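Cross-check.
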Amino acid sequence: MKESKSAVPALVLIVDDDEAARLTTSITLERAGYRVMEAADCASARARFAETRPDIVLLDVLLPDGDGFSLCRELLSQPRGRDLPIAMVTGLDDISSIHNAFESGAMDFITKPVSWGTLPFRIQFILRANKAIKEASIGEGKTRALLAGIPDIILRIDRDGHVIDMQVGTYVNEMEEWVVYDPVTGEGHLPGPVYGILAPQIRRVFAGKGEQLVEFDWSQAARKPRTWEARVILREQDEVVMVIRDISQRKQQEAELRLWAKVFEGSNEAILITDTNLNIILVNKTYERITGYSEQEVLGVDTAKVGAQLHSHSFFRNLVHILKEKGHWQGELINQRKNGEKFPTWYSISQVLNSDGQPENYIAIFSDISERKKSRERIDFLAHHDSLTELPNRALLNDRLEMAINTAKRRGEKVGILFIDLDRFKNINDSLGHTAGDNILCQTAARLSEAVRTDDTVARLGGDEFVVLLPRVRDERSLVEVAIKVREELLKPYTLEDMPLHLSPSIGIAVYPEDGEDPNTLIKNADAAMYLAKEKGRNNYQFYTPVLNARTLDRLKLEHDLRQALALGQFELHYQPQIQLSGDQSANLHLYGAEALIRWRHPERGLVPPNHFIPLAEEIGLIIPLGAWVIAEAARQVTHWKNSGVADLVVSVNISALQFHQAGFLSEVQSLLAAAGAAPSSLELELTESMLMSDMEVSIQVLQAFRDLGYRIAIDDFGTGFSCLNYLRRLPANILKIDQSFVRDMGSDSASLAIVSSIIRLADSLGMKTIAEGVETAEELALLEQQGCRLMQGYHFSKPLPAAQFEDWVAKWNGV
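Predicted model, tokenized:
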């Protein structure tokens, strides 16, 4: 803002008790080339004024030890203050203060909030105007020449609103129609809309109300409205001077600055502004919140130096080169919080040019992407890993197996696959719940990972199926060593809520290239070998052989046939008699009931026993409709026998865990019996204790509902699972079934006999009956009778029989 290179910069005295406003004003004017003095009150202003005469004073209205108006008059009254331009700083809508400012002799005023961008120009104008006024005495011509250099219109107006004279500065644009001339009288006057706006202010000046200031919007014709500032001052008794200035640009700048301030401070992203040397000059609140640094702590920080410390020098040097060459850059950068924590951010940096096209500032906007990166990494991880055990899943296993095969092919090596399944894991889920099962799976994953080499891969395919990939295998013997080690690890007791559990693995082994040359074939054949291990008694390992392919195909065909068997009516029920001792002698026997046992009469395989298809039915989800068919058929048969006089007995049916725990099971059984016309007392439901233990409280409620309706409840295979006497005493059961394994061994094994005797006494004490399964000899019958068991079934009486043969057996039995 200097007049020339040799001119001394103007000295500005800023008098304001607001330190922030005073500091901001000083910085703004010093950057514009002015010299600045500061004073916080009237006393310090007088002292500074006495030391050095300023070229202009910016004087706040309110000061702690006086008011700006009085100080203005005081300074102007001194010889040093003669012709001193003073601009009062007042509120935008404080018309009273503006009037008092001019009454006190101030030359101009500046409204708050201050437009920092236009302030230097405003100072320049005031100084120029002041200089012009001082030189006005030289002559009218010179005065007009000086006024021509200001961006204002100066009009002299009489009481009737006629324009006496008008002076237009050379910086004024689009002013050709400001005076309208009457075609008759030739008198000039302001355009009607303008006079309508300014007439009240003109009248107020003539009425002695002092100088008036007003802003208004107006433009000629259909041009875009512009904003004007008009100052009306009494010149003579019948004449006023009106100074009009176009403030459209200033208003636009003020609006833009307000908008920028809102965006700057309200942004959810951190914003920092640097100078041309990349030193920070401004940051927003979000920057402070994200980094932990306050604005004062980072002002002047060299961002290029900090960036080079957090990244390689070459990377950041290349970033700065691109930014200066292209004017913008965006990408990921590492940032650092005040507490030392480093975090990832996404930056967008833009270059700001000045009016000469040279870099003036850089604006950087960034956001913390820590959570976004963590989420993306977690999603990527879960896409290739099991969510429970965090082991590689099938997709990642296939990728690694493909790489291992390719490497082995080049090197002439072998690749081994161990397919591992936990024996009887389903019992854990059924008896202790899925939470316990998940715990076991996680422990298994940890043990497998510890048992193998670091470059081996342990994967979980689902359920209790795990695969170990062993690249670079020397021979089959090394695979056996790993299989033995894995088996020993998994045989160690599992800990579950301080209760030790014992599980064993079945392991199938396949070898590249003998057992397959691609991942799918190798895994499939290892799976088949695992099933062979189960068939050989579980808790062992087996290598794959081609014969297993045929067995696998046979199992698939069996599954296909099983899905159609129910619709084709291939299932039938066989009935095994249940005998009751009615007295103290074994001769006093009579028929108590029968157990309904399902059989599958396959058109090609013949009669398929339950242990060959029931596990498969559970696996493919067919057990629920199959179980419903068993209940319906048993109800129909027992009703037929009762109505035809064959026998009035109780038929027991086995209930699967899936069937029992399905919603609406009680209602379904009621409907099936109602359709068959059977009474609830004619049906006995057999359930294993392990299936009840998964949710004992719910099981007790469901069983009690069945008992209340008249159904009989039997607990099958009692003593072979995780027995809990605390729950047993609450179970609404009628009968405990003694497992045939105890019956078979009680003659030769004292422990088995003791268990049988204990179950009988336990049932008696709880008001229940016992029925012994698998009674095959007269000696077993006598021993059970001696122990107090009164219900029995087994081949000693009859094998399970089709319905017609059962009727014949009943006729002969009753005839005995």
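Confidence is low (pLDDT under 50) at residues 1-5. The chain has 30 helices and 36 strands. Passed to J.P. for a second look.
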